Amino acid sequence: MIRIYGFPLGPYDGFSFFIFLFFKSKNPSAELINHERIHFYQQVELLFIFHWLLYAGHYAVLRLKMLGKPGIKRPHDTAYRAICFEKEAYANERNLTYLDNRPLFAWRHYFHSRRNQSVDK
């Protein structure tokens, strides 16, 4: 992994793409670094391209499900947080040893899950 600090990312604090981890801050938190490292391993498992195809597909399906639902004020944010890859990363970003024992394809446990639960528990 190659870390790049001080990268302009708009509203995002970090971004993982291929072997690069981009961070808006020059001093990102350990939790943010861990969150992006989790995404890196998700991408490796799916040979990068399949990760991004699944990620985009899951996001698109979630956004389509929200059409016409009046109670959702921020559909992008709601769909983004519901993507299985994001659920795994958010649920485990504070566990700095999570990647030491992370099961392969752990993100699949979050695919239909409604909550951000750690697989470790």
Characterization of the model:
About 45% of the residues lie in helices and about 10% in strands. The model is unreliable at about 115-120 (pLDDT under 50). The protein contains 5 helices and 3 strands. The radius of gyration is 14 Å and the shape is globular. Helix 1 (about 30-45) crosses helix 2 (about 50-65) and helix 1 (about 30-45) runs antiparallel to helix 4 (about 85-90). It is mainly alpha-helical. The protein has one domain (about 1-110). Keywords: Membrane, Transmembrane, Transmembrane helix.
User: Averaged pLDDT, please?
Assistant: 91
**What Rg, in angstroms, do the CA atoms define?**
14 Å
Element order: H for helix, E for strand = EEEHHHHH
- The domain tally reads 1
Number of extended strands: 3
Instruction: Pick out the low-confidence regions.
Output: 117-121
In this structure, how is the largest beta sheet organized? 3 strands, mixed
Number of alpha- plus pi-helical segments: 5
Q: Proportion of β residues?
A: 5-15%
| Approximate shape | globular
The chain-level structural class is mainly alpha
Strand order of the largest sheet: 1-3-2
Terminal Cα span: 27 Å
How helical, in percent, are the residues?
40-55%
Transmembrane segments: 46-64
Keywords: Membrane, Transmembrane, Transmembrane helix
